[in-house]
Amino acid sequence: MTAVMEQVNLSCFQLRSKVTANPSVYQTWALNNTLAARLDGFDSRALRRITGTRWHEHVRNSELRELTGQPPASSLAAMRRVRWYGHVLRLPPEHPTRALLDFNPKQAGWRRPRGKPRTRWMDVVSRDLRTINITPHQAQLAATNRGWWRSLVNSVGSTHHVQEDE
């Protein structure tokens, strides 16, 4: 009987209780590994609260994700970033969004401040593409084929995992 109740509760969970964020937020986050790990930690705590899992039950995060069918928030963010990158690559070169993507601060005479460089959005997208062995130049060629690009986006989500900061 409890297995049936879990099934019913989980199906209700999948339909009504998803934690959502505005998609434009996901696709513009330049998450470093520390922030991605914190986001996944929050996501796991939210899943535990929704499913009613307590700390003394010793349920691993991987088991919780398998039970609920929810991917980590950092992999969703990676998928959205790569999807947005493909969209921007398909824009004409004179479009303002595409112009920002192609903008080179060094050529404009801009300099980065001293210290450790901040993580830029394009650096994070390049890291996401490296997980599936695609360079940004290859991505420019691949983005013209939407079907193939969609499969690349899905493979980014399945291979994405948080690593230690470099």
Automatic annotation (TrEMBL):
This is Uncharacterized protein LOC118421783. It comes from Branchiostoma floridae (Florida lancelet). The gene is LOC118421783.
